[in-house]
Amino acid sequence: MKQYMYKVDTQKWHAFSTDMQFKNIAAELERATKAALSNDKELENAAFERAIILLDASITDPKWKNKTKLYQLRDAIAALYTNNVHPAISNLISKQILLQ
């Protein structure tokens, strides 16, 4: 599969509400979970990478006053990406995001 770098239009991303940003990040974590359950490491990693890129775009969004939660979530996703953690963990994190 050809690799490419996922890019975010930050102007459009910043126009989304914080809730919508979280839902998009959670969707990428759901994709990672489904890929992991299908033993597709390439798709799983791509979804984690997109989630991190979207989080980075959220971190630059001025409407986020307290960015601590964003940094903690980014650290958790990076750990999932690098440590081959069970898919249930990424599923749990995505569900927690939606509850925020």
Automatic annotation (TrEMBL):
Source organism, top-level taxon: Bacteria
Protein name: Uncharacterized protein
Organism of this sequence: Candidatus Falkowbacteria bacterium CG10_big_fil_rev_8_21_14_0_10_37_6
Highest classification ranks of the organism: Bacteria, Candidatus Falkowiibacteriota
